[in-house]
Batch of 3 targets.
Target 1
Amino acid sequence: MASTATHARRRAKSARYFGIVPRSPAFWFLIPAIAALAIIGVYPLLLALYNSFHQYKLADLASGTPWVGVDNYIATLTDPSFWGALGRTALFLCVTLPIEIALGLFAALLLHRTDLPWMRAAARVSLVIPMATTYAVVGLIGRLIFNRQFGVANYLTGLIGIPPQDWLADPTLAFVSVMIMDIWQWTPFCALILLAGLSMVPKEAEEAARLETPKWSMILWHLQRPYLLPGLTAILILRSADMLKMFDAVFTMTRGGPGAATEFISVYIQRVGFRLFDQGMASAQAIILLILTIVLSRLYIRFVYREAA
């Protein structure tokens, strides 16, 4: 019995030494999270990658899913509709994201300069409300705001003499309407992130800078900018990824219309996969979109975050 116990202790010791059994019990608490990540994140990605190399049509499952190699990728890259949806998404990102950052920076500077703690706390709570609203609800709110008969948008424009507009039936106005709702929802996110960066600036240095120059632009550029760049990098990465996969709010608000005016890339992929029932083509498009998101994130880190470092 003693030899058996000694042998068991030696096996346990060797297992810990080679890392087979983790020394910290925290590892066992990570197992549910790892399992959830594998089921929710890794498995769908591998399945999409597998489907992208096969002909997988839901309307013709009797024919099986034969291997087609890179044919789905070639068809995607030569599809004008795919590039049109990607171009609309890029335009939406390039116009909406700078507006959100500019408005968020303006709000963050106002809150940073206020001397009333209760006002700052109330503003932070109110800024969380749009972010906490789900995308589908934002789309429904947008349909109500831009309704031609009883929408608030036509009421406000009517106060300055502009006749009622059919916002969601006009291609340009529908695109602008989606932009407005996204700006309303995510400008507070930019403001809170940038406000956190401003709070990292040493107060002594900021007070000395205000004594040196009254120009807030010089203080912002020379003193506060290095503290804002890490948060700005996070905003660029997260918001760009969100805009590239933006679906719920657009689909609820406009269904991608009128025509294809608001058919962003995620809406187009959904149409190919669940209306044309071509899962192989949709999977290839999703993989290309993932690669594009990774490349864009790496560019942000290289050119924005490296400057902060």
Target 2
Amino acid sequence: MGKAKAWGGVIGFVLVVGACNSVSGNSDDTTTPSSTPAAQDATAIAIPPSAAPMTTAPAARFECRSVDTVYDGDRTCHPGGEQVIVTRAIDGDTVELADGRRIRLLGVDAPEADTCAGPGATEFTRSKVQGRAVMLHKEPGVDLDPYGRTLAYLQFGPYFATDLGNELVLEGWATPYEGGQANTTYMDNIRSSHGIAEYRPNGIYAHPCGSPKVYGDDDGDGTPDYDDHVNVDAPNLPDGSLTGGYCARKWWC
């Protein structure tokens, strides 16, 4: 009697295990549902480009939800645009794309690669965008320059929020390109960045390629204007310890 009960328990266990495998799908059928909510969410979320160099077009396209209608170069993404890969920095303001197009940045002018600050400007652009995904934005009605290069703006970095031209100017590697085809809003921002950069000893404003401006030096002689009053003869002033016959940043000068 004991052996019969034992064999009955074993048979019952085998039947239960077989039924569980049939229900859970652990048989020869290894197919999975074609789509799940998690899979749909994963494909809908656009992933910003990573810092790792890239040589092929990214699978995901970043969608900017900004309401800007005019490209302004501020540190925010801009709607629209074309996601591309930069394969080479030709110089500070010119790059080559994976599809062979050459892009000349609108609104800025960097030194040529073979001039004093040229290698530094080229290296700056290379460090920011070469081998990476960027967003290309066109100015309405603007296409190619006389050399066949596409005139455009480029944004890079997380969420494509950083304008390459503005960064070049702000860090002293380029100047505003007046008389070009960039829009006025963008150019106003570029000029503001230039107004900051020209007082810093960076890029084209650093030795040996140049020197920064001096605060308070409106006449361009390299010193603050209040220093121009030092050692000025003042024969009509009374002699004494306060005057000494000259002005030295005194209130009456």
Target 3
Amino acid sequence: MSARVVVALGDELRGRVLAGADLDRLAAAADVVVSLDPAELTAADVCVTGWDTPPLPPSSYADGARLRLVAHTGGSVRYLIPAAALDRGVRVTQVAAVLAEAVAEFAVMSIIAGLRDSVGFATALRASEPWADLAARPPGRLLRDRTVGIVGASRTGRATLHRLRPFGCRCLVYDPFLDKADAAALGAEPVDLQRLLRDSDVVSLHAPVLPATRGMIGAAQVAALRPGALVVNTARSALVDGVALLAAARAGRVRVVTDVFDAEPLPVDDPWRRADGVVATPHIAALTADTLREQGAVTVDEVLRFLAGRPLEHEITRAAYDTAA
């Protein structure tokens, strides 16, 4: 009997992530059902999930249930499936490695754009500010001559460091799980968080949200940032005291580029939308047409490996689950 694969994605996300050819590849190897019905999830051997998939019902991973693999087309899985499911033998795979490439590119773009104040110049030009006044604005700074602090040597943090190397900037990294040899291989100097905040011209956040990292950039840490520092957050808003960071941006002490917020969608009257010193984007750091299709293709590749009894390439092990995003 063929394995039963339930594609638990809404119509819109499924259309963006899974190409017809990828669905055909699945259908050639398994009995494929497209459904968000909890009853269907409970009867699945494999679930393909996404950002719009609700948490899996406990019946799907209870003792005696059929579920053997959750193949997630996104990155974060903790909201979707609990550690107890992995303890009962359910395997989990995701595409954080795919998303990391897109987010790292966006982070480097944000760093360069922030250092050069390209959004500020473009906004002033659109508002008809006189050309001479624009020329008299404070000039931007070269990335080459800056110190960039990376908070979190996650996949995205590492991919960002890789992309920064050709620019010749000095890189610091804070991650309690990273040793000196690994940091050196990434072209970065390992430091504690306080020194990173104090010495960096740019601070880019790439840590997962865990009990130990939630609020790790609090009011005291915001105050420790050097005047004029640029803070880039493409990770999660829960890492930062948003009130303190926003106040520092409004006071002109720091500048901020952020793609993540405590409330999403961001309310129309939220001060993050229009605060001076802030460039805000609507959680799109990982969102490219190329990335979406790659998410689907890599997920299907993983399901086919699993069905063929081959090793998975993007599995979240039980040990890794506790520190995963």
